[in-house]
Amino acid sequence: MAKASDLSNGSIIRFNGELYLVTEFQHRTPGNLRAFYQVKMKNLLNGKSAESRFSTDETVEMVRVETRDLQYLYKDDDNLVCMEQDTFEQVYIPESYFGETAKFLKEEMMVMASFEGEKVITASAPNSVELVITYTEPGVKGDTATNTLKPATLETGAEVMVPLFCEEGQKIKVDTRTGTYVERVK
Q: If you ran DSSP here, which 8-state letter would residue 124 be given?
């Protein structure tokens, strides 16, 4: 157990029996009243936001979290199968933990997962990935002066909007957090 004053942004706590990630943490002293901590947090299981106040001497249960890099192997129903690099042990991670970034994952990519003991509590894809364009319409010649975009299908099946000069077979860099084109890879 730790005091509320030990919390910080990014801390993971057990609150009302569920795991929460602290997203915002403020110390407040309103007028003549006692000081307290205003905490905004996100439920790690369902993604819902919550807010709570803790007195300065109140105890909270901080959770020890171990973060590991895993290699993504393949998709199995609603799970993504990843492998520990050291022990070659396979770990099944629900696809929902990755959110929208799961559509940019391809085999042998490295992903990051957070564990509480042996249980996976969060997972995330790399911030950017390099993928090959498998299909896109050809750009119209002379239409490059404007900043127009066209849809392109990537090797993972994901669709992103790319500039007109991008063609099939080219490798591009995509920001997985926003799902947008970043640049061509040479």
A: E
Each domain of the chain, given as residue ranges in start order, spans: 2-62, 66-124, 128-184
CB 115 within 8 A of CB 13: no
Domains 2-62 and 66-124 equal at CATH topology level? no
* Residue 141 pLDDT: 67
Q: How does pLDDT run across 70-109, given as a tens digit for each residue? A: 999 999 989 999 999 999 999 999 998 898 999 999 999 9
| Cβ within 8 Å of residue 82, ≥6 positions away | 70, 71, 72, 73, 90, 91, 92, 93, 111, 113
- Pairing of β 49-55 and β 90-94: unpaired
Query: What predicted TM-score, i.e. pTM, was given to this entire model?
Result: 0.75
CB of 172 closer than 8 Å to CB of 131? yes
CATH architecture type of domain 66-124? Beta Barrel (2.40)
**Cα dist from 115 to 5, 19, 121, 153, 178, whole Å:** 24, 12, 6, 33, 25
CATH of the domain spanning 2-62? 2.30.30.30
The CATH H-level (homologous superfamily) assignment of domain 128-184 is Nucleic acid-binding proteins (2.40.50.140)
pLDDT digits (tens, 9 = 90+) for 98-153: 989 999 999 999 999 999 888 898 899 999 999 999 999 887 766 666 778 899 99
